Amino acid sequence: MLRFKTILHPTDFSETAIQSMHLAQSLARDHGAELVVLAVGKPPTPFAALYTPDVEMMGLIKELRLQVASLIETINDVTVRADAVQGLPGQAIVSVADEIHADLIVMGTHGRTGLLRLMMGSVAEYVMQHAHCPVITLRPAIPRPSTEQTEKPSGCST
């Protein structure tokens, strides 16, 4: 049976990320594992990198750490740690997972498909391909059509 000691949950603070954090928390509780909640600050564009002082970049990371700390302040049933790093999200997540010896990564996805996914890439896909531990992804729920929408109006023949 798999036993998890350290579970990494990368977050972008989206609704799907919040839902996947609850799953990560449940798994951490069930396995007696530590939960590490990570935010990744994307690096500035090359142009902005030339003009963004290091002090400002450190301020951005500090702000991300505060956001993550606020997000996890209600978690009291597992050992939890907040962290934030700067980098390309997929690469940063895999790097942190290696550094902390994560046994599992639990993350949300945005559910992009087609051209949008091709243009924007998929952080979750990168993590699944490069992580050295299992990865669980949760995608946004797709609303099911209600029975009222699928029923034909009265008076229509089939």
Blueprint (SSEs and pairs):
Elements (H helix, E strand, L loop, with lengths): L5 E6 L3 H17 L2 E8 L4 H6 L2 H19 L7 E7 L2 H11 L4 E5 L5 H7 L2 H8 L4 E4 L8 H4 L8
Parallel strand pairs: 1-2, 1-4, 2-3, 4-5
Helix pairs in contact: 4-6
Please give the count of helices: 7
Tell me the structural class: alpha/beta
Classified in CATH, the superfamily is HUPs
CATH C-level class: Alpha Beta
Brief summary:
The chain has 158 residues and is of the alpha/beta class. The protein has one domain: 3-Layer(aba) Sandwich (Rossmann fold). The protein has helices spanning 15-31, 46-51, 54-72, 89-99, 114-120, 123-130, 147-150; strands at 6-11, 34-41, 80-86, 104-108, 135-138.
Record keyword descriptors for this entry.
single chain; 158 residues; alpha/beta; Rossmann fold; five-stranded parallel β-sheet; 5 strands; 19% strand; globular
Structure description:
- This protein is an alpha/beta fold.
- The chain has one domain: HUPs (Rossmann fold), CATH 3.40.50.620.
- The protein contains 7 helices and 5 strands.
- The protein has a 5-stranded parallel beta sheet, with helices on both faces.
- Helix 4 packs parallel to helix 6.
- The longest helix is centred in the middle third of the chain and has 19 residues.
- The chain is globular.
- The chain starts with 5 loop residues before the first strand and ends in an 8-residue tail after the last helix.
- About 4% of the residues have low confidence.
